[in-house]
Specification:
The chain is mainly α. The chain contains 3 helices and 2 strands. A two-stranded antiparallel sheet has the order 1-2. A hairpin with a 4-residue loop joins strand 1 and strand 2 (83-86). The termini are far apart.
Length: 107
Amino acid sequence: MAKAYRTQADVLKAKRKQEKKRRRPRHLKLAFDLQAAGSATMARFLITLGIVSLMAGLLWPYLSRIGLGRLPGDVVIERESMTFYFPLMTCLLLSAVLSLVYRVLNR
């Protein structure tokens, strides 16, 4: 059975009341907004990481000519059936260079 309304104001008031019931609470709306912003940031980071990895792979033959990857301090253990290689010094050098680049770009 439908309610009988006397004025247009009563109709609008009833509609607003129903809309308030259907709305998400404010804290949930904020959480969804932050989640969408986090997803966009993560996507941008992964795309950038993929491009950097691609560039490093394409430039690797040229980087190995200058000795990157065979620096003193890189650990190489060769056995009869296996070779273990851990580029410790190369990782430290790349970390220092990337930290400097990051610091310069954030100024």
